[in-house]
Write the structure tokens for this entry.
Amino acid sequence: MSTVDSPPAPPTRTTRAAAATADYLDQRTGVGNAVKEFARKIFPDHWSFLLGEIALYSFVVLLISGTFLTMFFVPSMTEVHYHGPWAAMDGVQMSEAFASTLRLSFEVRGGLLMRQIHHWAALIFMASIVTHMMRVFFTGAFRKPRELNWLVGFTLMILGLLAGFSGYSLPDDVLSGNGLRIADGVARAIPILGSYVSFGLFGGEFPGVDLIPRLFTVHILLIPALILALIGLHLLMVVLHKHTQYPGSGRTDKNVVGYPLFPVYVAKAGGFFFVVFAVIALMAATMTINPVWNYGPFDPGVVSAGAQPDWYMLFLEGGLRLMPGWEFVIGQYTVSMNILIPGVVIPGLLFTVLALWPFIEAFATGDKREHHVLDRPRNAPFRTAFGVAYLTAFLILVLAGSNDLIATHFHLSINDITWTFRVLFFVAPVLAFWITKRICFALQRKDRELVLHGHETGRIVRFASGEYIEVHKPLDAHERWLRVQHEPRRPVEIEPAEDSRGVRRKGYRIDAARRRLSKVFYEDRIEPVTPAELAAAQSHGGHDALPLAHEERHEELTAGASGSRHLAPEPEDTEGTQGTQRH
Amino acid sequence: MSTHHDPSTDVTTRGDGALPERFDDPGLHEHRARVGDSDPKANKRAERQVVVLFTISILGTIGAIVAYALVPPGETVGTMRLSNLLLGLGLFLGLAGIGLAAVHWAKALMNDHERAEDRHPTASSDSVRVKAVEALREGAKDSAIGRRGVLKGAMVTSLALFPLAIAVPLVGNLGGGWDVSQSKRTMWRRGTRLTIDPSGRPIKASDVTIGSAFHVIPEGLEETEHPLNEKAKAVVLMVRMDPRDIKSEQGEGWSYDGILAFSKICTHVGCPVALYEQQTHHILCPCHQSTFDAADGAKVVFGPAHRPLPQLPITVDDEGYLVAQSGFDSPIGPSFWERLT
């Protein structure tokens, strides 16, 4: 259908009706302008761009399933005695919130499905936000002009955490109740204001009778409204900036290569919404989540062993578990470092660095240009290594949040595990940083090697002299471009502290800080192959790249190469060319 | 942008014979046709597949409605799961059919020629900026705000203050009575009987065997105004061990014949410390693994807690029931700023 241009068909009834509707709308809204502008807008294609879409679609699923749940859930802490089909809880005293959650599961047809869809969608919402952020981070998509959109996305992540925690606590079961009790304990550790913050949250003493209705309003109105507004802003900026694209031939900072919104992305993205919803529905159909009927209603004297919060809260829980019991008293006032450090300081640090990263990196590079072609993570070794180190610290905290399950599943001592994680929290990120940076360099060297010498063919040739070589197949122009297209990043060079007349220059201190930071970022580096280097490599080892065909050109290229400068001299690529080729 | 597609052994030289600093972008890949683009049969097959996928969706949705009508959740977990499974599978098929059909349609049948569209700088052009600045300047001039400092000050102040009329009552009411000292008091008084949680039955000292652990609430808990609030502070874990095993206590004579009672609220962040290990006399918090030694004044032996669990001094009354000698001598639960005041 795509390749044949058929002559325009005579108008049918349907097309006439469509035309009339369009005319009606356009006369009243001028929608034609928007259609002209956006219908054929180009979007690039890559699987990793779907991560953000998953976040968007799971949010829509949350809205749909959440609306269903509000019809039957009763956000009240009034105590009632349960009488219903679930015999195990017959006559048990519980809040109306918990009783209505049981009713949703046992009596409302499809209620359990919607509850489980809602919970699974929430987990996937957070997971896709986090992986989407990782994609944006590791490819440098946050660079100018997208720094503000990074902040919007960051805020969405925080709101997602709050949405998850407030919703998770609504059923008023014993598991989430203890989660709230922990939140209360953390709130009370805040110096000076702690007790008042706790009273403000709970409407008095824990647990009180106000919390569930308050959380309900926060969960179904305030946070979703904010998320919806920020999603709108997030997408508006995506349209404004046009989507980033991965490097490749024909892709530049001045164009965007891909397929038109209508019909390709209407079908693909629209279809993908249904796929995401379908997967969540399948999970909800086959995998039980949060079976509160087994936990029972909240009771401040009851706790279950092996309890875990939802995954996105595990890092906070892990911090609380790892921290040694430091607490001190100033005068007669108590300061609980065992709660403040894991509950406030560490998440505060982690989140602040994350939110400010685009600005930190922009400061280090001093780069004011717009970037629309993404980085391959290997070509930004410091950033990639930092990101992996960051994730490692996060992962250690997540694992520490499950230290009791690790202990019981693997028959290990909980004390040993806790101590191991305490050490790993400091050591593992450093190791991860170093290893990742080395891996990036190794991959960059591999890219250089391929560009300079081509692919191994496995074809061994013997020369008349008795010398054996393996024939290498040179890269085609597209494959080569992928490996040389990036600009080398180098530490910034700055003006001297004093001008020619010996007067101290304004702004030198900031420049010096920038230089120091950019040295940390870019001092160790491997730069892409330049045409001169390729020419030099060919003149050295040309005969084993393509034995006879390029005899004449060698002379010319050597001449060119001799005048050029190697930007990133590496022994094996310059002097040792012969050696590396003759394995 | 260079348009030629030479193998990489070609290195383009500049007019003067020198090599460029960087390679040239070879330009977009040539379009590769799909099987269906040239083979009408394959094209027709893809179309049929899309139709089948939509049909699966229709059948799935009908299946979900049938499951809704015929399979109620019932009274057991088994029937509930069955109802959930059938409804969910129907919904899954209904959605997956549409999703996969649309994606397959897009990939197999729609025009797949890549196109390039130009980008423009995000910033507005200089001439637009000039006009924008001019517009603002004119507006500011029309408002005559530049010359009226007092007016500006009054406006900013009134705008900054008005939210207080909403925020102050809101925040003021949030905390109930704001009597934060409540959290330092529990129900335990001299003579309050220890009763079993949740039945409220008093406990005779003679019924407590060595090695056992009891979950305890104060007598009369249900009659209080906010039983859950009181319970959240007053729950106690009571254990009995051989009196010779007791290394230390928080107060002289606070135990009765090897029976010790401790606040069940963890001094870390307030989870109930419900796990008692009979052999080691350790009390463990399942939330963050703070471990307390019941035989040694409930001192912290591991984990993030700092303070021992407060001990409830106990004795027996005339009838042999366990009672409190007094309340806790320090606030129970997590530390907070004014705990010691």
User: Anything to note?
Assistant: Chain B has three domains: 1-113, 131-174, 183-324.
